[in-house]
Design a protein that fits this description.
The structure is a single chain. The protein is of the alpha+beta class and 330 residues long. The chain has a 15-stranded mixed sheet that branches. A 4-stranded antiparallel sheet has the order 16-15-13-18, with no helix packed on it. Helix 1 links the parallel strand 4 and strand 5. The protein is globular and about 65 Å long. The chain starts with 6 loop residues before the first strand and ends with a strand. The structure holds zinc ion. Zinc ion binds next to loops. The site of zinc ion (ZN) has 5 residues, from loops.
Length: 330
Amino acid sequence: MRPSPVSPTVDFDRDGVQHGFLRLPYSRDDSAWGSVMIPICVVRNGKGPTALLTGANHGDEYEGPLALYELARTLDPKDVSGTVIIVPAMNYPAFRAGTRTSPIDKGNMNRAFPGRPDGTVTEKIADYFQRELLPRADIVFDFHSGGRTLDFVPFCAAHILPDKDQEKKAFAAVEAFSAPYSVRMLEIDSVGMYDTAAEEMGKVFVTTELGGGGTSRAETVRIARRGIMNVLCHEGIVNGAVEQERTRWLDMPSGDCFSFAEEDGMIETMIDLGESVEKGAVIARIYPTGRTGQAPQEIRAKMSGLLAARHFPGLVKAGDCVSVLAIELA
Ligand SMILES: [Zn+2]
């Protein structure tokens, strides 16, 4: 396969702090020989494990970038044993536009893996992570939140994996993150995900969903900042103690967790995030708005559980994910 067109302005094997770019040539109307300049920070102090930290895999999720720009500004190499690679805005064009996907090619970074060196801008970024950055990492931490269209209870998560040793290390890092909730996560659409690419390479992969709605909250940013330091301390990459807080473990046992709208309309949530429902209870109602006198469509819980995520905007379209339920583990 041809080499990546991305050139880093940092040296991954040099000790100290470097603030630079992943420079990706992008020729266009307003810049014939222009580039996309993706900010990157490398903090290295000798031999040791490598953590690869990313935010804004989706461009409208802010807890990750807020935690990681701050970490890049403040992390002292004296406190590090090994290497911390920080890319606070992985899909940088999407982050700049404040949108989930890239305005250049509509690329969803988390469906673009393994990417292509001769593909679109999003595919070229994915390819660089796949072939250059992921192989360097021992632990991969990718921040997400709900973006404009979803809202979550704040949780850190990892996936159930065939390799139980890899799974155990990931869940131990989730526990160390100490979000209010920790999730054994089920994906509905795992092909092309960064998660899957990292896990198939045998890496310890940890992610989050910390709120949403296309903004951030003081509480969720605090959780993100404390959590990532906890994970780096837990991995022995940063010297310090884990500030362990109580976390409630949730499981997503099957596709019955998810409910989808079958009609367009205006949505009324019947329970709030973190509240529990019994199987069969109405979670949300979708009102047809074209005329009066019509009954709303009822979305009923297919299992008993706690509301872990919900559709955020007031209007909903057929096919939108309305709610995600999870079961609290004793
Ligand atoms: Zn996301």
